[in-house]
Every structure is written in C-alpha cells, then in structure tokens.
Amino acid sequence: MSLLRTFKMFTLIGLLIGCGVPPSINAATKGKAIESSKPQPATFTMQLRVGESKSHADSGLNVKLVDTKDSRCPPGAYCIWAGHASATLQVTHKGGAPETVQVGTIAPPEMKLPGAAVTGGWRLSLQSMEPPHDPKANAKPPAVTVTLLIEKI
To answer: For 106-138, how does the pLDDT look when each residue is reduced to its tens digit (9 = 90+)?
Structure first.
C-alpha cells in the first residue's frame, strides 16, 4: 500500500469519526431539539374591520378597531402630498385594562400625525388600509379593512 493511499484512508476515517456528533451535544441532549439561547422576536399581522376585535393567543393581545380616518390622495388624482390614513385602536393586554392608541401612515414629524404606537412592550403599525377613501362617495366605505403589523420590542 502506498504512502499516499494510506494517508487518504486515515483522512477519510478521521473525517467520518469527526462528523458523528458535534461536541456541543452530549448523551443527554442527543436526539432532542436544541433551543436557541437568543429568543426570536414575535412579529405578526392582524386584519380588522371597524367594530371588530381579534385576540392573538401567543401574545395575549386583544385589539379592537374603533375608527378609521383616511385623507389619502384618491387613486388617479394628482395631489400635492400623499395624504394620511389613521386607525384608532383599543388594545387590551392579558388581564389588563383597555388602552386607546392611534396608528397611521408615515407623515412628516412636523405634522404631528399618528405613526406607530407602543403599548405594553408591543409596537403596532398601520401596514395598510383598503380600499382607499373615495371623497366623491360622501361616506366612508363600510368594508374598510386595516392590516396591522405587531412587533414585540
């Protein structure tokens, strides 16, 4: 047997032995799922219509959409700025009292319009409001759906 062939054989055996079980896993944890020591942030979306409440079991949050305001530029119109949409929410944390917050689309800070709201370690943001308000209709469409982005902070 040549020296090169012997070297290849021992290298292969060493690789196979080394690939068996990582050193961080001992007999007690072998075959069990290993949990990351770094908790993953909780992020989820929630869709609501005016008057509707939804609960999220994992977070312990209950969110009710109380009202919406929509002054965004209607589709097909030419506007100086994009406008603003906002939603008034009633947020209840597991076992807590309801808190009223407002969330809205992005606007310049000097306008002091609602953006994201923070309550009880959660950030609520308005992701979308559909359909857009039609000023020609003279009333809010009854089927406005608000999508919220909710993130643990």
So the answer is: 888 888 888 999 998 999 999 999 987 666 666
Rounded to whole angstroms, how far apart are CA atoms 42 and 27? 32
Q: Does the N-terminal peptide bond of residue 131 adopt cis geometry, omega within 30 degrees of 0? A: yes
Query: Helix, strand, coil % (nearest 5) of the chain?
Result: 15, 35, 50
> In this structure, are strands 43-49 and 122-130 parallel, antiparallel, or unpaired?
unpaired
What letter would DSSP give residue 136?
G
Residue 140, C-beta contacts closer than 8 angstroms, at least 6 positions apart = 68, 70, 133
Evaluate if residue 1 carries a pLDDT over 60. no
Confidence of residue 6 (pLDDT cuts 50, 70, 90): low
47 by Cβ neighbours in 10 Å (0-12 / 13-18 / 19+) ranks as middle
What would the two tokens of residue 110 be? 């000097």
Distance CA 84, CA 99 (A): 23
Q: What is this structure's pTM?
A: 0.67
